[in-house]
Specification:
mainly alpha; 11 helices; two-stranded antiparallel ribbon; binds NADP nicotinamide-adenine-dinucleotide phosphate
Length: about 425
């Protein structure tokens, strides 16, 4: 049954009037803001006509944005959520996560990485942003930490559509900001005037180890655990076995691997990191949701799907780790961070045994969990590994005359 108001907001009288008083103020502020901004844009950036002194003393622009956005959007929001709010369902945490994802970027990362044309911003502009940000951060934090949504709200079209809109908007917003930033890098207004390389066209770069931790460990380890323990309901041994398998993969892939590998480049474009983060979030959520909400029979450990799935996963896991370590040891042996022809074991048969191993892991996952989410994740793995392995094999053949042409790309003797 579709409920028009799905939540309950059971707070005391003072809390009620603080909340709805601020809602009224919020609407009023929106009305005043649109009238003022329509008549004249706030004088910062391209609209700074040189008379911005009338807004008062200036402060460092990066600091200004951190003050006006991160202080209310990150700090105040967290304080209100944890000290003032009372509701602790998964919906409250999902909304908290969305808000923080936006404001950690908008209030901290964005001001630190953008290339502003001016180093200073009028303090009046900062305060002019700080004031409404405080009101709305308080209001939204108050709501999402005091409203109770029904247990099954994740099936509600409002929740699903809202989440999809948010993610789409988030990605579009970040992409556009990064594109604007990369314009100045391309045109050389940072002083270099260099031609843009494909690498740079992905936008700002970050430390490669941090990039992989962000794109793999955050969803694969953290989000997965949160969904499993806060959102899921089933607690049989099978649910824990699947949790263990997934975590074994992602603790290695998302934490150990990025910390120990010898990368040839210290930096990675942030676009690559976000491009990995997005699908990893979707699939981590999906698989965690499945394995923490699906109930398998008590005797499932006798089931051939469970046994074969487990064996495939373990075989794939060992192969993947062995191949990655083999690649790592190549550079240690040769003493430089160049590229060499790997040999031995499965490297004699395929160019990318690490991808082959990971693919077998997810095949095992799909068979063992016998789920559509597992199948979707395995197919997504194929979509990544099949083309990348083909490119890698082609790259080896072009780089090394002596590269054995009989080696396949991904699957021994087949492809
Ligand atoms: N689940 C997914 O969707 C997904 C997607 C991609 C990767 N992965 C997994 O992540 C891991 C790493 O993947 P990747 O794409 O980064 O693998 P990769 O391209 O094979 O690189 C792995 C590491 O080995 C180095 N390396 C590669 N070829 C080399 C050679 N011929 N000589 C010397 N060093 C070499 C690379 O150096 P450089 O960094 O300098 O190139 C990098 O440090 C794998 O386990 C893979 O299965 C998963």
């Amino acid at each position: 049954m579709f409920q028009l108001l799905p939540w309950t907001f059971a707070v005391d009288t003072v809390h009620f009037w603080v909340h709805y008083g601020l809602v009224f103020l919020g609407f009023l502020l929106g009305g005043v803001t649109i009238l003022v901004q329509l008549s004249k844009p706030a004088p910062y950036g391209k609209f700074d006509q040189g008379n911005s002194e009338s807004w008062g003393v200036t402060i460092n622009q990066r600091l200004g944005h951190i003050l006006s956005d991160a202080t209310p959007g990150v700090l105040l929001f967290l304080l209100v959520f944890f000290l003032y709010g009372t509701e602790r369902q998964y919906t409250n945490y999902v909304f908290l996560g969305l808000w923080q994802a936006h404001y950690i970027h908008r209030g901290i990362i964005h001001p630190l990485v953008m290339r502003y044309s001016k180093a200073q911003v009028p303090l009046g502009i900062t305060l002019g942003g700080l004031f409404p940000n405080c009101i709305f951060s308080f209001l939204c934090a108050d709501w999402i930490s005091s409203a109770r949504y029904p247990d099954q709200y994740y099936y509600d079209p409002r929740f699903i559509i809202g989440l999809l809109l948010f993610v789409f908007g988030y990605v579009t917003n970040k992409w556009a900001d990064l594109k604007l930033r990369s314009l100045r890098r391309q045109k050389g207004t940072d002083g270099a005037g260099r031609a843009q390389t494909t690498f740079e066209s992905w936008g700002v770069t970050i430390n490669q180890r941090l990039g992989h931790i962000l794109s793999d460990a955050t969803p694969g380890v953290l989000l997965f655990l949160l969904v499993f323990f806060l959102y899921g309901t089933e607690r049989q041994y099978t649910n824990y076995v699947f949790l263990g398998l997934w975590q074994a993969h992602y603790i290695h892939r998302g934490i150990i691997h990025p910390l120990v590998m010898r990368y040839s480049k210290a930096q990675v474009p942030l676009g690559i990191t976000l491009g990995g983060l997005f699908p990893n979030c979707i699939f981590s959520f999906l698989c965690a949701d499945w394995i923490s909400s699906a109930r398998y029979p008590d005797q499932y450990y006798y089931d051939p799907r469970f046994i074969i799935g487990l064996l495939l996963f373990v075989f794939g896991y060992v192969t993947n780790k062995w191949a990655d370590l083999k690649l790592r040891s190549l550079r240690r042996q040769k003493g430089s961070n160049g590229y060499y022809i790997p040999s031995g074991g499965l490297f004699e048969l395929v160019a990318c045994p690490n991808y082959f191993g990971e693919l077998v892991e997810w095949l095992g996952w799909a068979v063992g969990t016998w789920s559509l989410s597992g199948l979707a994740w395995m197919l997504f793995g194929c979509a990544t590994f099949v083309p990348r392995a083909a490119h890698t094999r082609k790259w080896y053949c072009e780089q090394f005359m002596e590269y054995p042409r009989g080696r396949k790309a991904l699957i021994p003797f087949v492809y």
